[in-house]
């Protein structure tokens, strides 16, 4: 399903081997939160998605673990930013913002996070909407 959608949106994409199943449990264990089902399904089809500029539209399962743990443990980040404990970062943009799942009162949503201002803004409510906007509306859709 995800390969088909991404291929239609971005025919130049190169797909990777699927993520190993054990990585999903490592993400949950390392971050203390469940991996959204739609992200699990995408990673089961391809372990990450990149655009033509090399931006990691969706990070690999390994990077999700590494970057989220680094952001949560970096001493400078603790002084500069609000906590990241309720976020699961999974992608970034050539324009600087990073994207993360956050659980809202209505279910999970996807926010953009600006490292310069620490602004966290709900931009879409599903991975499908995120991918459609990333591949069809360019880099400015989240502003």
Automatic annotation (TrEMBL):
Source organism superkingdom: Bacteria
SUPFAM superfamilies tied to this protein: SMI1/KNR4-like (SSF160631)
Domain Knr4/Smi1-like: 18-133
Protein name: Knr4/Smi1-like domain-containing protein
